[in-house]
Amino acid sequence: MSSFRSLPSNALVVLVLCSLGSGALAMNPVAPATIGYSDLTSLNPQTNLCMRRPVHGAAIYAAMTNQSAANKLRNVELLQHAASRLGFGLSPFGPLVPGNSNDCTTVFIAEEIVRQIGLLGANEDHPHVLTARRGLLPLTRFLRNDINQAVARFKTLDPSGESYGSLWWEAWLQVAGLMTYREMVGSQGLRGNGTIVDHQIALEEVLAELWFNHFNVAASKSHQYMYGRDSYPEALRFGLGGTFGSLLRVAMRQPAMLVYLDNQNNLYDPATGSAANQNLARELLELHTFGVGPRESPGDGRPYGQSDVVELAKILTGWHAHHHSVLLPQGASGFVYHGALDADVPVRFLGTDYPPTGEARALAVLSALADHAQTKTAICTKLSRAFYAPELLAGARDACVAAWGTGGDLKAIMLALLQRPEFWGRSNYRKLYRTPIEIVVSAMRQMGANIVDVAYAVSAEGRAETVFTPSALTPSSYMTAIRDLQASRAAFFIHGSNRRIENLMGIQRMNIAPPTGYALDGSRFFSTGYIDTVSRTAMELAGLFEQLHTSSRQDFTSWQYTRPPIVSDINASGSDFAVQKYVNERLAMGDILPLARNATPAVSPFVLQPSHRRIISEVAAASASWAYWEATPSNKVLEKTWAGVALGNVEQLKK
Amino acid sequence: MTTGNMGRRQFLVGALGALGAAGSLVLPRMIAQGAAAASKRLVFIFLRGGVDGLGLVSPIGGDAATLAALRRNIGLRDPLVFSPTLGVNRLLAPLLDDASIKACLNIVLHAGSLNETRSHFVQMDHVESGNAASTTPTGFLGMAANALVRSTVGVGALMPASLRGANPLVLSDPARLQPQYAHGGLKPGLRRAQRLGLYKLASGEAGDTRVDTLARQAELQFDAVASAMQGVTLSGLVTAGGYVNSPFGQRLAVAGAMLASPADPAIVTIDAEHGWDTHANQATNDAAGFHAYGKKVDDLAKNLRVFKNDLQRRAMWENTAIVLLSEFGRTIRENGNQGSDHGRAGAMLLLGGAMRAHSDSAYRGLRSLSLPTTFDESTALDVVHDYRVVMAEILERHLGLGQAAALGLFQPAASVRASDYLNVVRTAG
C-alpha cells in the first residue's frame, strides 16, 4: 500500500480496484517526524515557546499565532478548535489534552495537519481497529460481489427470504458501524510503552463523511451496492487525496449512485429522441457540481436550464451498473457502459457540441463540469461552510478557488483553507454547530471510547470474521452466526451509538433519503424536540460503555487508562470536589469547574455558565439523579451519570 | 383567548423577555380538555418528491385516450368514477367508499406553484416559505400560527420548513414527551428541568440565546402535554387507532393524539418521506412492490380513512381541514423507465369535515383536466390554480385568520388574491 503515496492522483482511480489488499482506509496515526510525543513538554523557559519549531506546518503555525491580541486563541483553545473542526472533538487519551496544552501542542497540531493532508486517501486502519472490524463488523471485510453471490444463493435455498433479507440489511448496517467507529477512534494510536495516544484531529474521517454527504446515496434504495470491503464510502475515501474531478468520476461510476438516481435504466429511445430518465443528470448539475437549480427565468444568472438537464440525460444514457446478482470479475466495481443503449446522436450541452463518442463523451463532460467556474464556487462554498463561520465565508471560498488548479486539487485546497489566519482566529472560534453525528461521536470520544477496549472485547468474545466467509455460508449457518453477533455486547457499543445518531437525525446515517444529504449546519436540526432529545443523548450513550466493561477489560494494567477512583475521591474530599476532578480531568473539557486546588482558568477551552456548573454539581450530589438502579454509589454509576450530565450541555452543541 | 389564559400568558411572555422576529415565541394555549372539540384545525401533509398527479386522477372521456397512449404502463387502469369528468386510481377506494370522506373529498386539479422550477429542493422551499419568486427564512404555516397565537406540531423527526418562525413541538414518538423515561438499564433519575437547565441561561448570564429559547419552549410544551400523554406509546396509538403500521400510518396516529392534546395545535404538519419521486418503475396501479407509487397510494388511502375514524372518535372531524400536496407533479408522457420525470402542476387533495366536496363546475376558472396538444419528454400539466390561493382561503375562512393577514403571508406582495378563492371551505348553512 505504500506505493500509493507516490502515484499521481489520477492514477489512483485506475489502480484502486486492483489493489484492495488489506484495503482498509481510515487512519493509523504516528507522530510527525519533526515533533514527537516526548517533545511536547520541552519549552524554552525564557520564551515559553516549544524547543521544536514547525517545519512542514510553518505556514499553519504562523496563521495560528500571528494574530492581533484580541483575535489570538490560547494554546488550549487552538487544540480544542483543531479537534472540533478538523476532527470529532477531544479525547482524554495521551498528551494532547487541555491540561497539557502549550506552544508544543500547537506546533504538533500544525505539523500533524500537514502530515494528515499528505496521507489523505492512503491511510490504513490501526491493527486494533482491524481486530474490532474482523470481530464485530465482519461483513465489511469481504468483497461486495462475494456477499451478493451469497445473497443470490440464499434466495434459491431459502424461500422464506429471512436469510438473504437479513444479510442484505446487516451488511450495510456494518458499514455504517465502521464509519462511526472510525470517527470515534481513528485518531488513536499506541505509543511504544503501550499507552493510547489520540492525535485529536482526524482529517480523513471528517472529509470522508463530508464527501459521502455531498455524494449522498441512501441505503434503503441502494444497499446492495453500498456494502462490503469495497463499499461506496470506501470508494470515495480512495479519492480524498486526488482531485474533485476524479472524485466526481468515482461517484458517478459507482453502482450505488447509478441505482440511487435511477441511471442504470437510462437508455436512449431513437423513436422519440429522448433519454429514458433525467434524475442523475438533474442532480449531477444541481447538487454535485453547480450547486444551484436550473434557470427559472432567462438571464437570472444561473449557468444552465431545463434543456441542459434533458441533453445531459442523453449523454448519460448507457452509463449503467450491473445488477447486484451478476458475478463480476475480482475487484470490478460493477460499472458497465452499454454502448448499444447510448444516444448515438450529437448533443449540445452548455453551449458545446458533443459528437457521439460514447463513454468518452460522458467523461469529457464530467471533466468540463469539474473545472466550471460555477462548480468551483459551489464546492468551495460548501467546503468553506464546513470549516468557517458564516461571516468569514467569502475569503475562504476565494482561497479555495485560487487553489483549485486543474480539476480541484483536494490537498492543495485543504492547505489553502487551513493556512489562513481567519481560520485560527477568535472570530472563527466555536461559531458553528455540530451535526448529530458529531454530537454523538464527540460524546463517545470524551467518555473514553478507545481502540483497546473494543479489541479486548472482540478477543474476550472470541469473534473472528471467518465464520462469515461468503462462499462458505449457507442460510442456516449465516442465521446462526448473525444472531450470535447481534447478541454481542461489544457490537452493541457501536450499533447503539448509531441508534442515537438516528434519534437525532430522524433516520440512520447512510440512509438519508434525498440526495441533498443532511445539513452541515447543525442548527438546521434545531427544534424543541431536538433539544430535548440532545439533552439526554450523552446519558444514553454513557450506558453503552457498560457493554464493554463486563465483556472485556479485565486486565487494567495492560490498558493504561485507569478507572477514575470516584468513590474514594468522594470519601476523601466530598462529592463537590470529586465531580469537579472527574469532569475536568476525564472528559477532556479542561478545568470547567472551579477546583479546590490551584487550577488556572486558562486550562479550560471554553467557559461553562455558573448555572450549568451548579446543575452538574447538584446532580452529582443527589443519588436520586443517578443513572443506575443501584442503591449504593459505585465508580460505574457515578461516572456514567456525571459524564451524561456534563456532556448534556449547550457547549457540546458547538464546534 | 379567554381572560383566564391572558394573565398567565402575559406572565410567561414577560418573564422570557422580548424576542426578535425570527425567534417569536408562541406559547401553547393551555385549555381544558373539553374545549378541544371546538377548535379549528389544519392538518398539512406534504408528500415530498413530486407526486404524479395523473396517477391519482385522470380524465373520463375527453383526453382519456390520448393520455392512455402516452402512459401505456403508468396510466390508470380501471379508474373509479369520481365525478362526471374524472376517474381516480382504484387504490383510492377506501376514501370513496367512506360516506364521511366522500361528502368532503375534493381534488383540485392543475394545482401547483407559480414558480417554474423543477428542482425538488428549490420548489419545496418556494412552497413552504410561500414565496413564489425567491426565498424567505420563515414558513407560511408557522407565521400563520403566530398570527393566530396558536401552537403548532410537526410530526416527524425534523422541523419542516413550513413551520419556521413558530416554535413547533416536533416529535415522532410520544413516549419522548415523558419528563423522565427509562432507557435500557438507565433509571429515569434526571428530570427534564435539570436536563434542559443545562441549555438555559440564568438571568444575567450571556450565551446562546437561540438554544436558551428552544430549551425554555421545550420545557413549556412538553410539560403541557406530558401528563395527558402518560403511558401513550407510538405502537399503542397505531394499534388502538387501527392504523396500518407504516411510517405514514404512524405519523397520522401521532397527529391524532397531538391534535387532541392540551397543546391544541391549530396546525399539524406531517412529512411523508421523500419517496414519491418515481423516475422509474412507477407501478401506478400496483399495491405491492418496494417503493412503488401504487403501494404508497394504497397506504395513503387506507391510513387516511383510519385517520378520519380517529378524528371522529375524538369529535374533531367536523372542525378539521386536511390538505395533501406535493412540490410539483410529473411529466405527462411516461419516460423510458416506466416512470415519469419532474413536471409542474399536480393534484391537491382536500378532505376533512370542514371542507366542501368536489364539484367539477364549482370553481371559477376550472376546466376539465386538459392536456396540451404537443408533447415531449418534459411536457407537464400547466398550473391553473396556485396552491397558495387554496391555503389562503383555508387559513382565512377555516382557521379564522384575517384576510389581509392571510394574503400577507405570501410573497411577492399581492400575488395571492381573495378574488381567486375556490370556495373549498364549507361555510355554515
Structure description:
The complex is a heterodimer of chains A (655) and B (429). By secondary structure, chain A is mostly helical. Chain A has helices at residues 9-16, 58-65, 75-85, 103-119, 127-136, 144-157, 162-185, 203-214, 219-222, 232-238, 244-252, 255-260, 279-289, 306-315, 359-370, 373-387, 393-402, 410-418, 421-424, 436-446, 451-461, 475-486, 489-505, 528-542, 545-549, 566-573, 575-586, 610-621, 635-646; strands at 188-190, 196-198, 268-269, 274-275, 319-321, 335-337, 347-349, 352-354. In chain A, the strands form four sheets. Chain A has a two-stranded antiparallel ribbon with strand order 1-2. Chain A has a two-stranded antiparallel ribbon with strand order 3-4. The longest helix of chain A has 24 residues, at 162-185. The radius of gyration of chain A is 25 Å and the shape is globular. Chain A starts with 8 loop residues before the first helix and ends in a 9-residue tail after the last helix. Chain B has 13 helices and eleven strands. In chain B, strand 3 and strand 4 form a beta hairpin. In chain B, helix 9 (234-241) packs across helix 10 (247-259) and helix 10 packs parallel to helix 11 (293-313). The radius of gyration of chain B is 22 Å and the shape is globular. Chain B has 429 residues and is an alpha/beta fold. At the A-B interface, strand 4, helix 13, helix 14, helix 24 and helix 28 of A face helix 5, strand 7, helix 7 and helix 8 of B.
Quickly describe the structure.
The complex is a heterodimer of chains A (655) and B (429). In chain A, 48% of the residues lie in helices and 3% in strands. By secondary structure, chain A is mainly α.
